[in-house]
Amino acid sequence: xxxxxxxxxxxxxxxxxxxxxxxxxxxxxxxxxxxxxxxxxxxxxxxxxxxxxxxxxxxxxxxxxxxxxxxxxxxxxxxxxxxxxxxxxxxxxxxxxxxxxxxxxxxxxxxxxxxxxxxxxxxxxxxxxxxxxxxxxxxxxxxxxxxxxxxxxxxxxxxxxxxxxxxxxxxxxxxxxxxxxxxxxxxxxxxxxxxxxxxxxxxxxxxxxxxxxxxxxxxxxxxxxxxxxxxxxxxxxxxxxxxxxxxxxxxxxxxxxxxxxxxxxxxxxxxxxxxxxxxxxxxxxxxxxxxxxxxxxxxxxxxxxxxxxxxxxxxxxxxxxxxxxxxxxxxxxxxxxxxxxxxxxxxxxxxxxxxxxxxxxxxxxxxxxxxxxxxxxxxxxxxxxxxxxxxxxxxxxxxxxxxxxxxxxxxxxxxxxxxxxxxxxxxxxxxxxxxxxxx
Length: 439
Fold this sequence. Notes:
Keywords: Cell membrane, Electron transport, Heme, Iron, Membrane, Metal-binding, Repeat, Signal, Transport. The chain has about 450 residues and is mostly helical. It has helices at about 1-45, 50, 90-100, 115-120, 125-135, 155-165, 180-190, 195-200, 245-255, 265-270, 280-290, 305-315, 320-325, 330, 350-355, 360-365, 390-400, 415-420, and strands at about 65-70, 70-75, 220-225, 225-230, 370, 380.
């Protein structure tokens, strides 16, 4: 009997011990898993997958070519693979690369990696990102590719000087300001690294401003042959006529009543912003709407129906008008108002009225495709016209669009179009930029 009670007591103690152990694990594991989940969200907010995934490659395995003024660099493998990725990185190593632009071996990273923006990411968020990349990402053994930059421009030691001159001090953890405006600023200036595309670059290829201390911040910049639009409060070529709701809709679905995402921004919406919470998107919108215009006091454009009536009556027989009717009006309509959230309006469009017409020219030549999103699952595309229209015909149509329905932007020349056509993939564009390309 004593033996029986002894065995029962031991079993009870072991059961309690096992319960205590499992309870302790259950208390700790959700915290770790929660950190990984938080890191996953932050990685999406930072759109890490877009740059660190080659076309047809594995997520985060690197190899994406990134053009720079001195040659081609390739994104690195940031999976936890120990031979080719960051599997041997400590959290401090990870932090130095992310926010300081310094690799584990001590060499400086090219600023194609937007560490001047990531410098604003707080250590607590760096910790979550590290937890995600080490525990939530599959290790991929994809080797890294060397840069295609000729010596001596390929030397990395001058980048240490670049960092000291242009990279800001990194953020520290502190008391959180939970206001939407401050949260939006943190996301835009930091993880969102919006300035990396939307801010013009200086002679050292540095962003001319990293914060709203200057109106050059987010005033527009050229990247991948597109003009990343002015995101400030300018009424003609910025977000002055957009509401906070318009911005949230654009970031969530890739479209709104004013425009549709194209080029690199379509990837940002597909990979990043559509996955963000409504609270964070609203915070971003609030911050962007707080930015003063570059050109203060400029009146917004007003719709003018004269072009619409002239096209309907056939009284405008100019080459630009005829080219628009034959190639564009079926989708964008003779009114220039398009179809809401289907085919973007051309009247009062920031892209159309930008001083630099490169985006409009490139869209006509190369076509464009809306991103597929969960809230906007219908994907519309515009065909390419590079093999149908000559440089002169494109110039006439684009000039017509930029001066119709109340638009008030400068004319475009055939030579402007030829420059853009020259940068298109050779396999789809003929060598003679002044003629229609032959397939």
